[in-house]
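Researcher: I'm comparing several assemblies side by side, and this is the next one on my list. It has 601 residues spread over two chains. Same procedure as the others: predict the full complex and return the structure.
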Amino acid sequence: MHMTIKKTLIAAATAAALGSLHTTASAADWVMLQGTEPVGTSSRAEVWGFIQTQYQKNTSDPNASNQYIPNKLVGPQLTSQEQFNVNRARIGVRGAGFPLDDKVNYFLLAEFGKNAITESSSGSTHVTDASITLNHIPGARIRTGLFKYPGAEEGLQAIHVFDYVNFTNVTNQLMLERFSSTYYGANVPPQTLPVVNSLNAFNRPVGAFRDVGIQIFDAFTLDNWEATYAVMIGNGNGLNFGDNDSNKDTYLYLAAEKIFSGTGPLREGLKFFAWSQNGKRTFNGDNSAIGINGAVVEEYDRKRSGLGVKYLARPFRVTAEYMKGKGMIWNGPDKPSFALTTGGGNPNADDNGIFAEASGYYLDGGWYIPSSNWELDLRYDIYHRLEGRTNELEFKTITYGAQYHFNRKTRVAINYEDISATAVNFGALAGPNINLDGVSGVYSVQLTHIF
Amino acid sequence: MKRWSQRVTTLAVALWAVTAYAPAYADAKSSSMADSKVVLQISDNDPSKQELVLNVANNLIEQYGQDQIAIEIVAFGPGMRLLFANNENKGRIQGLTTKNVRFSACKNTITAMTKQLGYEPELNAKAVRVDAGAGRIMELVKEGYVLIKP
């Protein structure tokens, strides 16, 4: 069934992305919005940011030994099933440092909240964006530094206007890259509560859909149509400023959209987009020559691609995106070494993610209740991890959401995620299902204020 | 005959002088006949002020009618960015000029910006250069314009 939907999605989005270059368009142009300032009206330094506070409760049941796996706990600490958290607290400045020449823009942003960016960092804060954009060449703007790479909509869009509390499983697991720990660490077994050994075993921050590199990009408009392209070369090392090898990632992005009305992140329109990423990761993936002073490292391919469509014309919003990946398939925060592996350091093992494949998609719909401040959201997402292998896992989630907008800058989001996780080739209480059985729902409430 | 010729010559010289030194605004005279006259000053670096000054001009036209009010927006200092050719508000500026709103750009500011930039900034084609922004405002106030600095 999901193959049929997948093929339909691919066909529709491909036809749209290719055929609509001259005829279609969409919601917000995130490539242009994040780091590029309006001409003639930019500030020298505009201070801005946002805070997100939240409460989450995971209602999953433990295994027969009363033990929990990460999917049954609340991140990023993974020490309990419910918590209050300051999930994000970001502040930054942006603008044109020399306003007379606003062809040069900058964007600086730092994270002070508690999430997978800061949980695995050496400190409690982390710079998430530090970029300079040169707008001198018509049709070929240049952005350098640390910034969001062009890619999947959920990751590329500004997180403070994201309509849900948590990412879909496909975005979270396939696209939100975890970088294997710099030293060897054994997999962490399921834990009883209170947790003795942290299940979040990574010692580096997640990629946060960002990379350090250089991007050539621009958007072209014709009447109500806008086409955007971006080509980027980056370290492929996430938020880490430097590189750990000589390999570079390449990112390609193409979008075409018909603009209905408005500007900025809440612009209404119909957008078709397609993207791809290609790179290599260098680390000790086969448990070879492990020693105190380091280990022999190897290079492994990491490929991701996807396409999708987003429609926004109040009171309705519809989004669909399909993503797939090959190589470096993440297998959970409790598996910090050997590319996020099980398999005892054997990249070819059936349950090892180094050479594995994965895919998934999501469908999202929103309805802004007329003459009210309420918005209703509904999302379905599915993710196939280690696809085609014995240990293939399938995550299915239906997210029911409501948002109340106090004003244009403040809103509260209430979500319930109905989650099922299954090892498709195993019966109940067999193989991985020993721990996956019992994964159920997550309640969450999140308050966002943008300043 | 000689007298008549002298008169023609004098008239021609006077005509030339009037033409040569007349204000740059072709419709300034007719605008000065309006019931209400307003000069709006934009000299601020704050981008929101750009939008505000255009909003004020638009609101005044809506309230009084474009034939009943004369509006001139004088830009100088950091506010000159409003009249840069590629300013995001160029569409609105174009729209306001069709409603007889005039835009003045201070030459002193342009000279100073040229030194800072290393090249002369390209101005909106609708902007008319005046010797000094502050001087232009004083002239207009003497003519009965009300100065508003949003």
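Model: For your comparison table: Residues 55 and 92 of chain B are 9 Å apart (CA to CA).
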